[in-house]
Amino acid sequence: MARLANYFVVVGYDLDNRVEGEGQGRILQRFPEKDWEDSPFPQGVELFCQPSGWQLVHERQPASFFVAVLTDINSERHYCACFTFWESLDNPQLKKNEAGEADEADEDLAVVQPAQVFAPKSLVLVSRLDYTEVFRNCLSLIYTVHVDGLSAQLETVIGNLLTCIIPIAGGSQIDETPVCSLDIVPQALACDWLLACLQPSPEEREESLRTITLGAGDRQVIQTPINDSLPVSGCSVAQLFRQLGIVNVLYLFCAALTEHKILFLSSSYQRLTDACRGLLAIMFPLKYSFTYVPILPGKLLEVLSTPTPFIIGVNSFFRSETQELLDVIIADLDGGTVTIPECVHISLLPEPLLQQTQTALSMALDPELEVADHAFPPHSVQPSALKIQDKEIRAVFLWLFAQLFHGYRWCLHIIRIHPEPVIRFHKAAFLGQRALTEDDFLTKVLDGMAFAGFVSERGPPYRATDLFDDLVANQVERIRQEEACPHKVMNHIKELAEQLFKNENPYPAVAMHKIQRPSDNGQNTSQIQTTFPALDEVGVQLFIDHAAARLKNAPPVVKAEIKSMVPSGPPLGDIVDRNSNVMANSARRLEVVRNCITYIFENKMLEAKKLMPAVLRALKGRTARVCLTQELNQHVLQNRAVLDDQQFDYIVRMMNCTLQDCSHMDEHGIAAALLPLITAFCRKLGAGITQFAYSCVQEHMVWTNMQFWEAMFYSDVQNHIKALYLETDGGDQQNNSVIVSSAPPQDGSGSRREVSALELAAEQNRLWLTLSKELQMERVQKEESTVFSQAIHYANRMSYLLLPLDTSKNRLLRSSGLGDVESVSNSYVTNSIAGSMAESYDTESGFEDAESSDVANSVVRFINRFVDKVCNESGVTNEHLKALHIMIPDIVQMHIETLDAVHRESKRLPPIQKPKLLRPTLLPGEELVMDGMRVHLIPDGREESTGQMGGPPLLPAEGAIFLTTYRLIFKGTPSDPLVGEQIVTRSFPIASLTKEKRISVTLSMDQFVQEGLQLRSCTFQLIKIAFDEEVASDLAEGFRKHLHKLRYPQHVQGTFAFTVGQSAKLVLEPKAKDKNQSLKTLSKNLVKTAKRTINRQYVTRKKYSPPSVENRSSFQSELDEDEISVSEEVDQGALTLSSTIRSSDRQTMSNVVERACCRDYQRLGLGTLSNSLTRSKNEPFRISTVNRMYTVCRSYPGLLIIPQSIPDTAIQRICRCYRQNRFPVVCWRHSRTKAVLLRSAGLHAKGVVSFFKSPNAPTAVPSQADSTSLEQEKYLQAIISSMPSYSESSGRNTLSGFTSTHMNTSESSDKLRQPKIGDLMKQVLGNKDDVPGTFSRGGKWGSIRGSGRLSAYNPDVGTRLAGKESPQPNGGPSDPLFLRQQKAYLYIIGDKAQLKGGKQDSFQQWEVIPIEVCDVRQVKNSFKKLVKACVPSSPTSDPNMSFLRLLEDSEWMALLHRVLQVSVLVVELLDSGSSVMVSLEDGWDVTTQVVSLVQLLSDPYYRTFDGFRLLVEKEWLSFGHRFSHRGAQTLGSQSSGFTPIFLQFLDCVHQIHLQFPMEFEFSQYYLKFLAYHYVSNRFRTFLLDSDYDRIELGVLYEEKADRRNPQVCKSVWDYIDRLNKKTPIFYNYMYSPEDEEVLRPYTFVSNMKVWEFYLEETLSEGPSYDWELKGRQERVAEETAEKPDTSAPKSQRHIVWPCYDSLNRVMPDAITKLLQDMQNLEVELGQTSDKWKDTWDKIKTTQRTETKLESKASFSSSLLMSSNLSHQRRSHGVCLQEGSVRSSINLSLECEASATSTPVTGRQSTSTLYSQFQNTESENRSFEGILYKKGALLKPWKPRWFVLDKTKHQLRYYDSRQDKECKGVIDLADVESITVGTPALGAPKNVEEKAFFDLKTNKRVYNFCAQDGLNAQLWMDSVQSCLSDA
After folding, report:
1. Beta carbons within 8 Å of 735's beta carbon, 6+ residues apart
2. N or C: which end of the chain has fewer CB within 10 A?
3. What stretch of H or E contains 413?
4. What's the CA gap between 1435 and 1498, in Å, rounded?
5. Which helix (H) or strand (E) holds 1853?
6. Is pLDDT above 50 for 735?
7. High-pLDDT (> 90) share of the chain, %
8. Are 194 and 475 contacting, i.e. CB atoms less than 8 angstroms apart?
9. CA Rg, the chain, in Å?
10. Rounded CA separation 592/586 (Å)
11. How distant is the alpha carbon of residue 1906 from its chain centre?
């Protein structure tokens, strides 16, 4: 029973007390004056009566009513019903003041005279019960009594009100049915039944309690709810949904549950209260426990900035002040909007629940929606009445919570039954079993305060139950079945709504209401109304005292609360499996897991090893993990299972794998189930020393999670307490199985129904009161000691798992940081727990001392915190707790001591199952820097090795990483046991390392996260390793440091090429004395040289600063700023060798003369260098020694070719115009046209304009610049004059003259395939449509720029060069339309960016072609992308990351296209007789590429071994390509990064080689070899940046080989020569050059192929470019470019894996194989074997002579070699078949021009001459030879071997000469005639017309083509004779 009202208060306007001009309210009277003991008077009532502030007004306002809610300090809510009316003020003084105030307040009212002012007065009822309507009625009655002056006394009415006592909840005092049951009422009368019911007689007493009267002729019935645990909502919920809508309310609902701040705005106070009440009602069964203020007074608005969650209502009047709240969700009830700030994220209900809830709500609120589209809608689809609708909505939310929380009781742990039940909720298990671990909403709800209250309120197993308990226990199955059908759901919801309605309105007492309302005049006659009187306090108090006395004497009304056992509902386990696909294909996997465990325990280790990878994969699934724990449980006897080492190892691996995939919450209870097993499995290490499994499975986060330990502890305590009561209850329950496993009890729903712990507890609670005091005490003590013993047990368990095996390492603590609160209690910790943990504990977290005592301390602290928490929660006595605190350090210390012994012994164990580390073979002179460290080689993005593309999974592999002075080598064996016998090797030179990155890797086998490294190399290799756990992290760090030192030595002398053969220690400890050692020596030498050459005073005039690494301009340019040119001061006599050079330097000079480039200059006729250095005057060029001391240009060679007429002194002036002083020098001369190719750097910016000034422009006083530009012009003029074409007549000088004579000499159609120079030029420059007289071309090359065309820098260049040619679509020659314009003698290819603003030479003797070059940065970035495309670091399925897409993005091919395009243009210009000067960037990158390619394309000499070597030495090494800088070879150049300019050049050569395979003496392998070794630093050839640097280090003119160490080759060329003598690996068998052939390759990207060098890998042996590493027996010659033919039969079957075996070694090509076989046979016969080259040359010469003897009609004698070619050539003779394209090439070794080749398909054979077969079958072959036969419609002409057989009277044809299978037969009987034919479409080119003839049969006409007319005549005669014979 409770008082209806605790206090009655009258609050009025405070006339005397005004604060800051604002009115105040004050309590005028309050009854009773003394506080009730059970309910103190709430403070601040006067604030809540006028929430917007106390104000006086000029007009009387209507009376208002609302209910405010105040919460006291004990979280009790007080409902303050405020009834406010307005009274006029009589005080004339006040009237004056007020009028003045009203003026200020409102000027419009100032005219009202006399001023009448009204003040508010409030009647307030304070109650603990929430009966809004009753309060409204009572206060209205009091007001009516006052206004209408009824006879009743106000004191009596108020006294009655305050003494009114009502029951809190329904259910009568006499046990009987409720007054009116809804069951009797037909549903159709959902509302009308209220009126129909009459009050049954037995309830008069009950009725009198519920019917109240205040003694003023009134009577009203209070509807007390039947069950007060259900909230009472009236219509507030329905109202809330009408105001805001479904989605908005759902947002608010989720926000309230997930503890966000919610603010309601409305201009109505009552609506604010209703909205807040409605929101709380739909949260049932959860109760809101944060700040709850439905009406917040304006004065307290700062409450809104509180950090805690709240639900608050504020009048819209204060809207502006709520604007700046950043994290508050604002619901505007009047506007129907909900505003969610950006920073707030509301977690919504999980799907499909959200959808189902929305559907159900819309069906309740708007039933018409469903039938809105029906053609015949039903008549009565009205929504229910508001009261009913309200209950329907609440029913939807009840139904929702039943679904959210079903099965929650299975996750409750009861840890004490007596004296009070203590219950904990196992959140992780609940989420895990609902498969909602990831769900944000549910996780937050379970963590919230509301749910904590829910557990403590609803957890106890023995209590009164309500609607929600029934729903969760009994209706879950129904909800599950119906959820798919909305109508069934709706029916269920209506049933629930009915129960809710009945609970709220149990008594149909509408007829009983009788309340007086004030009469109209009472409301309106404002003038007469008197003020509310002061009441007689004594009278009211008397009433109250009377009532109190009466209550004391009355018998106590005891309502027997019906307690019962709370049903648990269906267990969770059954519900989950239909949602998650856990069961999918798991049966097979479980079988595998079971078998593997069986094998392990039966000691069948080999079987187990094979199953292991499958088991580890299966353990990713939850069912397999559960299965594992169950299976292992069976092998544990009496809590112990002793295993041998290998069994132990396997079991531990499986456990680790299982735990690796468990989250730290352990939501599936896997870690919990493993915990007892971890302490059971062990192995004997030695005498009395046992190692348990727990020491090997500590590396998992779950062990450091405090919540996991708590849940485990509570679960175990529950089982023990259950066991305790099952025992005490005696024999009849003995067969009940007790769950002592630590799994959560939901597993306990077996076939025999067990008594659950909660049921047991309910039974015990029921019996509790019947027990004697002694028994009660005994039970309490027993429970307490059970908890205590478990706490000791857990302290032990925790120390097992938290103390690492090697306590000095402190490994676990470092990774997880036990020290800090956040990581211990993970993010799911609730506030209360966090509070209990936040001791001064986190201060230690920052320190990671490796002292073992430290480990011990942090573990002790962790366990102490755990023990404190669980013991406090489970009521352990303080004495026991103290005892625990004393025991824990001892437990930990003891455990540390045992661990030390175990650790010592375990170190002695040989590591099991780890493969032996294989030693790599090292090169002579290569030494190990660090011994092998055990690592795992992880697969990267290349799928070939992982077995995904077929083939075995070679990776991951286990082995060791070795660091040598030269290479980084991984050697090991694949982890997959099925491929375990293979050896996997991956290596690359340290010097080629481009990127090193730390990674962390999870190894599938051990499930540990390991530290790893990813190392990328520019030899297109990627080594991704994870260090084994045995490798200490400092060792791994040491490895990184050593690697870095070796990769970037201080100086180039620290590279392997220099240190080879020395001790490795030198490399590792470079002197850190001076970083710029090399620069210092360099500058010293420079100064010396300069002093020798230049008069001394100029040297001393300026302080010399050594050149920077970036800009190594020569000493000469340092002196540029001097007023007078230094070079003019040099003594003229200094130019002779003898006078300038001392004897020591003469030796150097003669060396310079011996250099290969000098020999090349002499070969080209570019001048000779006699001993006396006299010039032969008739030569146009001479070799100058001006740079012999490298003073003119440091990066040029010592000897340079310059025009004869230019003196050396001029050179010193000219060189200043060019960057880096690299002035134009001649590097090659065309043997026929005598045009020369020059190279230089780009011009300095200052020289550009003067350089292009027109020569006859008037000049003022010549400045320095002018004189220089004149020198330059002279220089260019001298070059032009040296050309023979310049001196000849001008008639020959036109472009047409050159091209026509040149073109007429070539017969082959291939030579005509290129577009003409003009077109080339236009492509290079980009075409301009508006240039007059140019013609558009048929085909495009693609521009120099990858994207967008370049506009021509000078339109005339394009026009003149185009020469009005209009080429044919196929690029053939076009007819000259009219006379072409004159072309220039010299073309300068310059950088477009530099040539702005220059004028043309007016005589047009030279001309500038501006192009855009790719700068170094572009190449660098392109290369990075290329490497990532070819060697991706991880596999990806993203289509945008496919190989071809990445290749395209890298733009590498586009860069190659650009370089090749410019080169081909230059080749054409030179071939047409113009000289070309390439003058780009600094003259050492793109210039070198272009110049080298031009020479390679134009001069066949450079396509031989000697020539190519010479080309590289001359153009790349002598002319100073910065190999060290571009290759980032030393520490100094590390920052500039790796830029593969030379690799780009080699790739271009490779592209040309593919198109002209017969023009190169060297093979593709030769190019790959150079590409590998130019970055490997194994040889000194490609070190340093120029000849000057090499001379300075003494590298340039070393002895050929080191006398001391003959093994070590210092030059890559010597090495290649040596190797080439032994094996034909570098030789191209197809080499068959044509004399003076100029190559013109296609340069389109579509004509290029990705170089195999970038993609291939041989895991069996590593890169094949270090030949000493291969055993003698393996040294088979091979041609790497080919894909061998697999169709040849093998005697022994050997599977070849593409990324593992070296294909060319396993399957060499035919010629290599034959040469090898010959050599082997000679060795067997004891003969001295010839060198392979001699043998090959012999074969070629014999073949040549035979061919000459052979008759022309038959081609039988050509040698048929089987090899592999990828492009076609223009001659015939040898058929070479290709595997990939099935095209073939006719190749004649005499190079005679003939028909174009066409594809031939034929069997591969060794070289056999057809003549062997002639005798055997001659009678059947009358005449035979090759004929081209035209195929059927749309098919090409094909060469076939035709045989005319007179015997069989038929013409047969074969694919080739050796072919035994006939491909077709023409029966001569069908032949009608044979006639001379005409060339048809697609016929072979270059064949005379007489060679065609037709054979007509009665079925079709055959078109044939012989080789020439003679041959055709022979065939026709032979066939004719056959026909006539017949």
Report:
1. none
2. C
3. strand 412-416
4. 44
5. strand 1850-1854
6. no
7. 17
8. no
9. 51
10. 10
11. 63
Which three-class secondary structure state does DSSP give residue 979? helix
From start to end of 752-861, where are the E strands? none
H helix or E strand, kind and range, residue 1240: strand 1236-1240
Strand locations in 1085-1191, DSSP E? 1181-1184
In sequence order, what E strands does 872-977 have?
928-937, 957-964, 967-974
Question: CA 461, CA 660: separation in Å to the nearest integer?
Answer: 37
Chain-centre distance of CA 494, in angstroms?
52
Cis amide bond preceding 1332, omega within 30:
no
Pairing mode, strands 1021-1027 and 928-937: antiparallel
**Strand 1236-1240 relative to strand 1475-1479, pairing:** parallel
How do 681-686 and 689-692 pair as beta strands? Answer: antiparallel
Q: Which two tokens stand for residue 83?
A: 């009834």
pLDDT digit string, tens, across residues 463-497? 888 888 888 888 888 888 887 888 888 888 888 88
Q: Which residue, among 1442, 1423, 1420, has the nearest Cα to 1432 in the 3D structure?
A: 1442
The strand pair at 261-266 and 310-315 is best described as parallel
Q: How many CB atoms lie within 10 A of CB 510?
A: 11
- Shortest CA distance to 209 belongs to which of 199, 198, 197? 199
Query: Under DSSP, is residue 1145 helix (H, G, I), strand (E, B) or coil?
Result: helix
Please give the distance of CA 380 from its chain centroid, rounded to a whole number. 59
Output the pTM of the full model: 0.53
Strand pairing class (165-166; 220-221): unpaired
Contacts for 1815 with CB less than 8 Å, ≥ 6 apart = none
CB atoms within 10 A of CB 1131: 11
- Total residue length of the chain: 1926
What span, in angstroms and rounded, lies between the C-alpha atoms of 795 and 923?
Answer: 58
Residue 11, strand partner residues: 27, 122
Give the sign of the dihedral formed by CA 214, CA 216, CA 218, CA 219. positive
How is residue 1699 written in tokens?
Answer: 């990324």
- The residues near 1652 (Cβ < 8 Å, ≥ 6 apart) are 1564, 1568, 1680, 1681
Using DSSP's 3-state secondary structure scheme, residue 724 falls into helix
| Closest to 1903 in 3D by CA, of 1925, 1923, 1926, 1887 | 1887
Count of H-run helices and E-run strands, the chain = 66, 44
Report residue 1544's pLDDT band, with 50, 70 and 90 as the boundaries. Answer: very high
For residue 914, give the 3-state DSSP assignment: coil
pLDDT tens digits along 1352-1406:
334 344 434 443 333 333 333 333 333 334 678 899 998 887 765 454 554 568 8
Nearest to 1385 by CA among 1283, 1253, 1239, 1471: 1283
The 3-state secondary structure of 245-278 reads CHHHHHHHHHHHHCCCEEEEEECCHHHHHHHHHH
pLDDT tens string 1823-1880: 888 888 887 766 778 888 888 888 888 888 888 887 878 888 888 888 888 888 887 7
Strand locations in 1720-1795 (E) = 1774-1777, 1784-1787
Over the stretch 1085-1108, which tens digit does the pLDDT of each residue have?
544 444 444 443 333 333 334 444
Token pair of 1889 as six digits: 């017309």
Q: pLDDT confidence of 1674, banded at 50, 70, 90?
A: very low
| Biggest CA-to-CA distance, the chain | 157
User: Residue 1826 phi/psi, 5° resolution?
Assistant: -90, 130
Question: What number of CA atoms fall less than 13 Å from residue 311's CA on the CB side?
Answer: 27
User: If you write DSSP's letter for every residue of 416-473 in order, what string do you get?
Assistant: E-SSS-EEEE-HHHHHHHHT-TT-HHHHHHHHSHHHHHHHHHH--SEE---HHHHHHH
pLDDT bin (cut points 50, 70, 90) of residue 1502 is very high
Judge whether 1744 and 1757 are in contact, CB under 8 Å. no
Count CA atoms within 13 Å of residue 991 on its CB side.
31
